[in-house]
Amino acid sequence: MKKLVTVLLIIIMLLAGLFTMSGCGSDEKDDDDSGKVKSERKNDEDDDDDDDKESSKTSNKKTSTKTDKNSSDEDSKTTSSSTKNDSKSSTTSSSETEKSTTKTEKNIDGVVTSANYGQKVNYSVTVKDGVQVAEGTEGAVTLDDWEIFLKDGDYVYMMYGDYLPNAAISSEAKAGGSLSTEGTYKVWSTADRTALISSMTTTSYWEHLITSNLQKAAKRVGNAAVATGGATAGQFKQSWNDQYPNQVTISGDDTSGWSWQSLSIYAGYRSVAEANNLYFPHKSTVYDEGSCYGYWLASPSSSSTYSVMNVNYDACLNSYDYDKTALVFRPLVRLPSSILEQNTDGVTWDIKY
Q1: 242: helix, coil or strand?
Q2: CA–CA separation, 350 vs 340, rounded Å?
């Protein structure tokens, strides 16, 4: 029995030893396995760190690229904006310079004084038999020689700078005034002096001297342009005395008639004879199928019931009978002074259309 017990104890002890050895081996394996897991985890963590770092680098690179792109876009926008602004500024500056230049080229006040009498107005109209036609039309005349004759209140009168060709006289004026013509310039009435004067003062007979553009410009400021066949004696007196005070002393009116007077003794005549053709466009007789002495004024003379006032080339305010075949017309156009602007040359004027 004791031997059996002893054997059992030995067996038990052997089994216990084997169990213990088996347990230690398991722990080492577990430790190894645990180490491997830890190592793998560490490696995974390192890989994750590397991935994170790489991702961070990539993200930073993308962010940097995006930032650079945004910066580039902003720089591009800024540059573009700057270019546009510079261009706009340059355009504005150029435009302002042009406007400034335009403003300095003109005296836009339109202030006309007697000092401007005789100065040219850049205005042109082409007519034939009292009708406006295209320039170059056969038999037509272009009237482009106009001078400031008189400033009266808000109006300026410009006078044709030479003797008027008969081709510019309307058929209505010829019929209404019982007019006859000869040569290039000479005109008279076969009826009476009232008919001759009426042919000059009836504005509808002379509307063809006003272009549509001139009329639009005049009406824009509220006053229509008006034309007549010539100045009255009163207008001539006013114009002359505006420049040379109190030299023209003729008296009268357009009902009872005007007196006559020689102007050749005055400085005014000597001045215009030398430099200014306003009142005397010709200083001697013009031979036009006979002698032509001067131009009609649209006023009666007090010397007789047949006589009409006129201006002779020799500086005489005179009168001739209505059927005298030696005189011409010099028409007037009245326009608002505010539509005139002086050029920088100081001696010519434009119309503000």
Answers
A1: helix
A2: 6
